[in-house]
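re: ur question from yesterday

yeah so i grabbed the chain u mentioned. its 503 aa long if i counted rite. heres the sequnce exactly as i have it in my notes:
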Amino acid sequence: MAVEHFDVLIVGAGISGIGAGRYLKTELPAKTFAILEARAASGGTWDLFRYPGTRSDSDLHTFGYAFKPWLDQEAIASAPRILAYLRETATENGLDPHIRYHHRVRAAAFDSETALWTVMVDRAGEPVTFTARWLFCAGGYYRYDEGFTPHFEGRDRFEGTIVHPQHWPADLDYAGKRVVVVGSGATAVTIVPAMAGTAAHVTLLQRTPTYILSMPTKDAIGNALKKYLGPERGHAWTRRKNITMQRTIWRFCQRHPDRARRVIRWLNARSLPEGYPVDEHFRPPYNPWDQRLCLVPDGDLFAAIRAGTAEMVTDRIETFTEQGIRLASGRDLAADIIVTATGLRVQALAGVTLTVDGAPVSIPDTIAYKGMMLSGVPNFAFVVGYTNSSWTLKVGLLCEHFCLLLAHMDKHGYEICRPAPADPAMPTRPFLDFGAGYIRRVIDELPRQGDRLPWRTSMHYHTDVKLLRADRVTDPELHFGRRTQESVSTASSIGKGSVSRNT
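ran it thru and got these structure tokens back, copy pasting raw so excuse formatting
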């Protein structure tokens, strides 16, 4: 069977992969590409998650694409609306024929003599091979086939139903049932109010509180701007407004954590019943934005607590019992259904194994260049969005820069592009400076970042605009060449990405 060849292979047909395909199609229409999707449908997260109330926790004017206005009145949108938006984007930009479903990328090997990636793929159980000049990993940051569930003592004793949100059964009937949701992150605070109107009672059981802020579902100013300026200009101005707002809130929390904590507490107390133990359930031991803030649209979680259909409990689990959960305090929580909203399993680069000229690439021993390439790894790019604002803001910038990079190589006849730090002893630290548990669990499996640009992972949109939208992509630490020039030097430099692990 003939091996198919493409200029670019994109891994993943979620929000990042669809965005990457659109930029390639628009900016470099002569490039051939395919989008390899392991699942049977596009949309990534927004097709996978089916738990009650699945929605964004960022506004769609910034979480959506810059090139496609978000026209819905609701800025905090449900998963079906986001999924429809993504698939409409793919269709409008002619991407549907480029998407290959049931194609799970297992491994990729780069050969400097041919300047090609050979990509090993599982196609519905059948091994197939592709070749490509570039590999672009847009597969997200977590495992789609398995969520994270810690060990719970006595789990097998429970006589009811246990479900993880990542694998929500379509036929789960919780009407009139007692539900305990274990967790304190965005998924838990989404599920609780969504189930509270139907279940007999819902308890959110958390070990540690999370900062929670209420946000209007509808952006009144944004909707007015779109009405009077038109959809494209209105979307653009609303996007600028919300980027500024996100950045302002984040900076305030970073610079004045004590004041930010007091403001958040005051807002929470206003939304909760009089005399409610705010500090017990809504006062985390860390500073705001050391972990991501959870948003609740129109204060729906607080409304469920006020109505008495939902309850917050802050305690530790001693054991599961036949009828529910026994807490360290001795209290028993009766349950018919337990939802383990305990997080994601993060994995680097969609789990793809990389080799360069026969040498395995150790991801933790690489350093991220501009947050999108790996030291010593040629013709490879990946996408990781922001942790302190909307994911897609960075995705768009990275895709733009990727197209500029490919155009530069075409103009000068280059076939290979490889980042390498000028100082092999450059101090490094974890790729993501973020305290969330799902990141801390795998921090030693991720790339590192350096102590300066372009090796520092920026989480600042305006910094990245300057870095990634610049017309000039050349850099002393980004090496271009042709096959005859690179066949030896690329292989010999793979070990030079070894890092000094300063945390």
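noticed a couple things. Confidence is low (pLDDT under 50) at residues 485-503. also Residues 155-340 form one domain.
anyway ttyl
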